[in-house]
């Protein structure tokens, strides 16, 4: 008998699978009843520092290992009081969709099969959501980081003929990228990866609302040109990671046009409220971008991982990545026919079927369901901001244009340094006590507890609990000091 990896007893595995689904549904149903975070005990960590397994182990036993050592110590971005970094919570139906995708195990690189068409459908829906023309192109990525790098490659290769083949040395002079000082770090990393170097990412200063100062951007471009440099790309922020600031995208589009620069928008989460007609005014200019990145796994609450980049001119996108190699030649018929290979639009060849969950979830809730949740999160952010403003012991550290609230405990009479250490301590205790999972940033030297609300499970009472606990812990600290 040949050896293979299918179960010896299908019935047994089927039952285990049913149990897994039941357990996980129950886990998700009751997530609110458990602490927001549980630190991994030392003995459990030992379970995850074992030598390479040599022989087989029963699947049911492996599942027991998972239940003991993995599941209870989740990062818990599924929890109603998770507001850390910018992370979505996923959904039970999304989990099932991922299971189906994994069962099909389609490699969505090339060929005439359903997954290719599902991804195309999802890309078409994405264009519709953000006001991009049907003729635009796009590709699903692991997230906005890779979406941003993909766009940077397109911008770079489009800048001058020969860059794709000869590299950035094909141009005489130093190519320069511009974005506000609040631009996400992954853009600077992308600028490094594409051979420009982070020294040539100009961090344009921001105003008091953390929005890019467009007149300074103009000056910087002029000075760079005078110095013989080659400006080629502007990054606009639709929702900065620190405070949710939205750059003046319309003005950036004008500058890019006047200067002949590529205009990319990082809208990882902040582009999403574009689906709310009432919010569209605050994002005006979004549809003017040459390319746009956004995530499904953040503010559209889809299961990790899936992001997307859209490029307005499909031919430019294609030209940046297309290659012709004999093993990817498209045929007229058979599995080797079908839509154009996705590898002509990005770096990856093998790609999972991320599109399935997006397709199923958009159908399940409709864009109106998402719009309602995004509105709910925006309102929750204003609710928390109001709680903070109305409390003498809490201080709001930045405006709340979107879904991010930065605050600190500040009862008055304390030095900045002491406030910083106290608030860091408050944050760690909020986590350790399993109360809530905001994270942090530093704004003008002030340590801020940062609450990014991309959570479809949060309720108003959760924000009351956060504010109360922040004050309680702050007072405790002060008394025991
Ligand atoms: C999260 C984030 C990114 C990176 O996205 P990933 O999906 O984590 O790769 C980029 N830009 C902004 C503004 C973000 O919030």
How would you describe what is shown here?
The chain is α/β, with parallel strands linked by helices. The chain folds into three domains: 10-33 and 38-74; 106-352, Type I PLP-dependent aspartate aminotransferase-like (Major domain) (Aspartate Aminotransferase, domain 2), CATH 3.40.640.10; 364-480, Aspartate Aminotransferase, domain 1 (Alpha-Beta Complex). It is 42% helix and 13% strand. The protein has helices spanning 10-29, 42-47, 59-70, 92-104, 114-129, 144-159, 163-166, 185-193, 214-226, 249-259, 314-321, 355-389, 416-432, 460-480; strands at 82-83, 137-141, 175-180, 201-204, 230-237, 262-266, 291-295, 307-311, 394-396, 404-409, 437-443, 446-452. It has a seven-stranded mixed β-sheet with strand order 2-8-7-6-5-3-4, with helices on both faces. The mean pLDDT is 97. The structure holds pyridoxal-5'-phosphate. Pyridoxal-5'-phosphate binds at residues 86, 143-145, 184, 186, 239, 241, 266, 268-269, 295, 307.
At a glance:
The protein has helices spanning 10-29, 42-47, 59-70, 92-104, 114-129, 144-159, 163-166, 185-193, 214-226, 249-259, 314-321, 355-389, 416-432, 460-480; strands at 82-83, 137-141, 175-180, 201-204, 230-237, 262-266, 291-295, 307-311, 394-396, 404-409, 437-443, 446-452.
Salient structural properties:
binds pyridoxal-5'-phosphate, 42% helix, 481 residues, single chain, alpha/beta, Aspartate Aminotransferase, domain 2, Aspartate Aminotransferase, domain 1
């Amino acid at each position: 008998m040949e050896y293979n990896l299918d179960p010896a007893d299908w019935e047994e595995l089927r039952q285990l699978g049913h149990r897994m689904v039941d357990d996980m549904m129950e886990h998700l149903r009751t997530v609110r009843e458990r602490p927001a975070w549980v630190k991994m005990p030392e003995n459990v960590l030992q379970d995850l520092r074992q030598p390479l397994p040599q022989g087989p182990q029963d699947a049911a036993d492996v599942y027991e290992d998972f239940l003991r050592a993995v599941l209870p110590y989740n990062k818990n971005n599924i929890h109603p009081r998770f507001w850390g970094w910018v992370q979505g919570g996923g959904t039970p139906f999304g989990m099932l969709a991922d299971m189906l995708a994994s069962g099909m195990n389609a490699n969505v690189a090339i060929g005439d099969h359903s997954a290719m068409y599902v991804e195309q459908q999802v890309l078409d829906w994405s264009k519709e959501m953000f006001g991009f023309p049907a003729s635009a192109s796009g590709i699903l990525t692991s997230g906005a980081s890779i979406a941003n790098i993909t766009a940077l490659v397109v911008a770079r290769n489009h800048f001058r003929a020969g860059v794709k083949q000869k590299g950035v040395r094909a141009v005489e002079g130093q190519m320069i990228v511009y974005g506000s000082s609040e631009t996400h770090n992954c853009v600077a990393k992308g600028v490094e990866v594409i051979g420009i170097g982070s020294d040539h990412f100009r961090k344009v200063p921001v105003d008091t609302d953390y929005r890019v100062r467009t007149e300074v951007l103009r000056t910087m471009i002029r000075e760079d040109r005078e110095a013989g440099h080659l400006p080629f790309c502007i990054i606009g922020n639709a929702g900065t990671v620190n405070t949710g600031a939205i750059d003046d995208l319309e003005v950036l589009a004008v500058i890019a046009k006047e200067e002949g620069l590529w205009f990319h928008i990082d809208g990882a989460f902040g582009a999403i409220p574009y689906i709310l007609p009432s919010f569209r005014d605050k994002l005006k200019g979004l549809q003017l971008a040459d390319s746009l990145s956004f995530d499904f796994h953040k503010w559209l609450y889809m299961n990790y991982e899936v992001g997307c980049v859209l490029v307005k001119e499909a031919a430019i996108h294609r030209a940046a990545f297309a290659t012709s190699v004999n093993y990817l030649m498209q045929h007229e018929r058979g599995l080797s026919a079908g839509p154009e290979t996705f590898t002509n639009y990005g770096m990856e060849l093998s790609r999972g079927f991320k599109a399935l969950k997006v397709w199923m979830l958009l159908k399940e809730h409709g864009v109106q369901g998402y719009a309602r949740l995004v509105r709910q999160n925006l309102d929750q952010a204003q609710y928390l901001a109001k709680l903070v403003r109305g409390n003498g012991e809490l201080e709001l550290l930045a405006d709340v244009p979107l879904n991010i609230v930065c605050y600190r405990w500040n009862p008055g009479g304390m030095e900045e340094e002491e406030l910083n250490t106290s608030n860091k301590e408050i944050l760690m205790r909020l986590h350790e006590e399993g109360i809530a999972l905001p994270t942090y940033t530093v704004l003008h030297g002030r340590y801020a507890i940062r609450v990014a609300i991309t959570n479809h499970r949060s309720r108003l009472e959760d924000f009351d609990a956060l504010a109360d606990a922040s004050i309680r812990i702050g007072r405790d600290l002060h008394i025991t000091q």
